[in-house]
Amino acid sequence: MPTLPGSGVRPRALALLLAFGPGAALAQGAPDTIALDEISVAGAGGPPKAAFGVAAPPGSGPSVIERPVGEIVTAIGRRDVIANRPATTIGQVLVNSPGVTVRQGNGPRDVVVSIRGNNARSTGVVKNMVVLEDGFPLTQPDGASRFDLTDPRAYSRIDVFRGPQSPLFGNYASGGALAFRTRTGREIDGYEVGVDAGSFGYLNHYFTVGGVSGPYEVSLFASDFRLNGFQDHASANTQTVNLLASYTPGPDNRFTLKVINNTLDVDLAARSSLAQYRINPYQRGCATAANAAAGCTTFNLFRNGAFGATVPVTASEGAFGRNDRRTIVAGRWEHDIDADTTWRAQVGFDERNFDQPFYTSSSRGSYPSYNVLTDLTRRGEVFGLPAIGYVALSYNAIDNHIALYNRAPYGGPRLGALTSNQEAVQSNLGGRARGEIALSDRWTGVIGVSAENTWLKGRTLTYAYSANGVTPARADIDRSFLNVAPELALVYRPDEALAVRGRVATGYATPAASTLFVTPAGVPGNNTDLRTQTNLGVDLGVDWSPLPDLRLSLTGFYEFFRNEFVTQSPGAGLLSYTFNAPASEHRGIEAGAEWAFSPGWRATAAYGLNDQFYTRYVEQLSAGSLTARFDRAGRLIPGVPAHQLLARIGYDQPSGPFKGVGAFVEAVYQDGFFLDNANLLKAPGYTILNANIHYDTDLIASYAKRLSLYVEVRNVLNTTYIASAQPLANSISAVTGLQNGASVLATTTGSIFAGAPRSFVGGMKLAF
């Protein structure tokens, strides 16, 4: 699967194609800054020997894939987002990119990331984007990604690709892609120890070691994350180990090893209704249902674990939680066939193992998967024009095994009766090709395409219980999907300070087995008619640096979706289900700015506008013996805020006795959004203010090389806000057949997590 880069020893890398020589010289941001939508364009001098495919080798120089021509890419570095602040989740980093929305997931470090609103309706697994780390996929072959395993401390940079990316990244990249880059051995050059601590029992110990010795380069990161939580029953305990190692036996061969292991043990608070949130946003005083405070959320569990009478339990009584493990082991061989041609082969194994007893059901399972990729990059000329070409072939597969149980009340995370057993295999075989051609010293053109076939085969057995016994049912899937995604882009750069870009691209995402086995009633069963989600996007943008220390970026986009996946909850304790909206449109504006307007001063802004609505969708609702149909054309798609803004201003003393002392304040604003297809109920927006002070200095004549200290106050004004809200299904009255109003939706539980109140976090890091 193509990917983003590495940095260091000598630029070149993988992929296959039919073009050569570069008219594309890359505008590369400093590693500790936020690079705003920088793109590569033809340069007058000879081409840098840069990598193009999956990822540049660790420690290599700039690669084309890091700033691919015509793409809308924001590079988020360490400064003000990782290096001098306690970044507890990856969400606090990614909001620095225009077009990115972040939601709280099911666990304190679990976040749901959305690019251009394409995943904003999810409350758990990340979909509609491809996630990679050092060129290796973190997205499994069923399109699912999770960020429990991503400790921000490990990374030197994160690249955010916005818009349809299937021509470059294949299946599931309909909304974009994220490319994480861990710090290389030469970047670390020694070892570092650090600790962060703060409100609500937050504690994170971490350790980093890295260096280069002859042909070997290694970096190792490990962390131990603990949290009690600001809600009842919301503690966390997770450990992460992340290894990146490379061996370069000669000038023409490079070998890379990647290993990630994450273990997770968290207690989950209950998601509330909007009405409960207004009464008791942090779900406090909810230890027992019998003595619960006002506004506490309870869930009804079968007393016998199978059918009949139910009893209400709180999150604590039900012992809601997650106990997961994720292990990734992958390797890559890169070989320079000649000075202008590089071939790479990559293979990886990825297993997600989970035990998740929360709400009215408990899921247990294992998702082992593997992926193989080979690609070739060639630099040269096409019709006498400098060009670079890339071709890739990939195959990946996942074997799903999930058992779903009823929950039984009391006595910890007790299991009730087995309600379903799912087995499915999904595989994807595809090829991708891309060419970048320097049409002149000012114009660069791009053409790309991917084609991929997906196979899904499996079954689910469901069991319904009553006094008369067990009633089994079976649903089978045996489907295949063939998708093709082309891309065209054109970039005009009249001078080094200005670039104008246009792009037309497509994306696709096939259904995953898990979505095919949950019915609109929110129970296991047959939902096997889902189709592939496709989209066509048009982007027009400009990147401008009118002053040496000022960078501006502006992008407008319009995307047309067919069979868009929309996921929503049918009610408390029920499983979320997915359906196809026949036609919808997404349009918006993304803007970014970075300005060092005076010595030591820096201002940063990232803004996104999203306008997403159905153009063709008739929703059918049933209750009792009544059925009604509602035309949702023109309605806004739930879960997507119209406006998102991050603004930061800071100062770092550049010289004198106080050199290294700095501070910044930032505001994060998110608009409100509708929770339902009828647009009857809206979650309110919010603005969060954060303040930071830090000190970073070299240590002279000391065993340690560098000291970093920082303290941060988050949510300075102690604003109560919604960090996550699951979209809700509309309903009708079983008596009248009329659509129920906002008051019914407002009392539907299982939707909302509140965000953290005011908190204080500080830390220190020593580099040796």
From TrEMBL:
Record keywords, A-Z: Cell outer membrane, Membrane, Receptor, Signal, TonB box, Transmembrane, Transmembrane beta strand, Transport
Entry GO terms, CC: cell outer membrane
PROSITE patterns listed in its UniProt record: TONB_DEPENDENT_REC_3
Domain TonB-dependent receptor plug intervals: 78-177
Protein's cellular compartments: Cell outer membrane
GO biological process, one term: siderophore transmembrane transport
Keyword Kinase included in the entry's annotation: no
Its membrane topology: Multi-pass membrane protein
Domain TonB-dependent receptor-like beta-barrel stretches: 306-716
InterPro entries: Beta-barrel_TonB, Beta-barrel_TonB_sf, Plug_dom, Plug_dom_sf, TonB-dep_rcpt-like
Domain of life where this protein originates: Bacteria
Signal sequence extent: 1-27
Xref: Pfam families: Plug, TonB_dep_Rec_b-barrel
GO molecular function: siderophore uptake transmembrane transporter activity
Family statement drawn from the similarity comment of this UniProt entry: Belongs to the TonB-dependent receptor family.
Name by which UniProt lists this protein: TonB-dependent receptor
Organism listed in the record: Methylobacterium terrae
